[in-house]
Design a protein that fits this description.
180 residues; mainly alpha; 2 domains; 3-stranded antiparallel sheet
């Protein structure tokens, strides 16, 4: 697919017209979006545009107008256009975003766990050791949660904060683990 090329000032005018109704506005939003487009910074573009219909629709329309394609408002559609525009495989772009999201959730759960227990760092190390030794699934039985391995052996996750951290860690580990 061929995309239109514009100068930075033309891009900003297109974006400001679509978003603000004034091509001369020179908003910081148009500067940010145009810089991401010029640099083909797909991570920035997905952060700004990859949302469902109803969120940043004017910016999606501006992006589509700037690259010369029919406006798309869906997350899947805008992801595809961003990937094509930035010349990156869609699957790679989506995998990077998913990994980043999982990493962010893991960091949040780690902070919550550390704040919930005086020995938080020790509990984190305990869960990390279990996961590295093959305990990578969460099983719930009789309102209790267990971190289990493939044989069904497991450890009771006695507190919600520990369970939430274990869930986040196993999801991140499973996603980032290279497939054989």
């Amino acid at each position: 697919m061929e995309f239109e090329n514009h100068s930075p000032s033309q891009l900003r005018a297109i974006i400001d017209q679509a978003v603000n109704g004034d091509p001369q506005k020179r908003s910081t939003w148009s500067e940010m979006l145009s810089e991401a487009m010029i640099g083909k910074k797909y991570k920035v573009l997905t952060d700004l545009l990859s949302h469902g219909k109803g969120f940043n629709d004017k910016s999606k329309i501006a992006f589509c107008e700037a690259v010369g394609v029919k406006p798309v408002l869906s997350m899947k559609g805008i992801d595809l256009i961003i990937a094509q525009y930035c010349k990156i495989p869609l699957e790679s772009m989506l995998a990077e975003r998913k990994q980043s999201q999982l990493k962010s959730v893991l960091a949040t759960k780690e902070k919550l766990l550390t704040a919930s227990f005086s020995n938080g760092p020790e509990v984190i190390e305990w869960v990390k050791n279990l996961v590295s030794n093959g305990y990578v699934a969460i099983k719930t039985q009789n309102k209790k949660s267990y971190l289990v391995n493939d044989t069904g052996a497991g450890y009771d996750l006695v507190r919600t904060a520990i369970k939430n951290y274990a869930v986040a860690l196993t999801e991140y580990t499973t996603f980032t683990k290279p497939s054989l």
